[in-house]
Amino acid sequence: MWTLSGFSDEIARDLEEQCALVPELGMTHLESVAPAAPNLEYVQIKDAQLATGEVVAAGRGDGEVVETIRALRQEGYDGFFSLEPHLSQTHSLGGFSGPDLFTEAWQAFTDLLKAEDLPYP
After folding, report:
1. Could you tell me if residue 4 is inside a domain?
2. pTM greater than 0.90
3. How far apart, in Å, are the Cα atoms of 119 and each of 59, 110, 111?
4. Dihedral sign, CA of 105, 111, 113, 115?
5. Which of 11, 13, 39, 110 could cysteine-pair with 7, CB 3.0–4.6 Å?
6. Residue 49 belongs to a domain
7. Measured CA angle at 22 (ends 16, 24), to 5 deg
8. In whole angstroms, how far apart are CA 60 and each of 30, 46, 57, 71?
9. Residue 112 CA neighbour count, 13 Å, CB half
10. pLDDT score recorded for residue 5
């Protein structure tokens, strides 16, 4: 699932229209990476279990996080990733991590980056 924050309204509308066509064109999520990559400034990382909706650490859900990172790299993506670290239940103000869950979310994502040999600060 693509997050379109960080774009002008015009680009976001265009990308939303393109993303809406993905299932109609018979494309998978990963097949949509190549056409979207040149327009991406950053990618928000969040993963979840499809069956339950439970938010989980990056790479532990059904969001194809590792595959997406690989596909973006193959397309020459040189933007940055923004980690959505909220692993506990959401409430009216949004998700929550706390120190332990933030560390778990950060560690899972940086482990993925290391495994893919992608540098990070």
Report:
1. no
2. no
3. 18, 9, 11
4. negative
5. 11
6. yes
7. 115
8. 17, 10, 6, 18
9. 21
10. 46
Structural domain includes residue 3: no
d(CA 4, CA 39): 10
- Phi/psi at 92 (5° precision): -60, -25
pLDDT value for 3: 43
Element (H, E) at 82: strand 80-83
Residue 98's domain comprises 9-115
The whole-number pLDDT of residue 114 equals: 95
CA distance 19 to 79: 19
Domains identified in the chain, total number: 1
CA-to-CA distance for 48 and 58, rounded, in angstroms?
8
Residue 94 in any domain: the answer is: yes
Question: Which segments of the chain have a pLDDT < 50?
Answer: 1-7
Count Cβ neighbours within 10 Å for each residue of 47-62 and write b for 16 or more, e otherwise.
beeeeeeebbbbbbbe
What are phi and psi for residue 9, nearest 5 degrees? -60, -40
C-alpha–C-alpha distance, residues 63 and 60, integer Å: 8
pLDDT given at position 18: 56
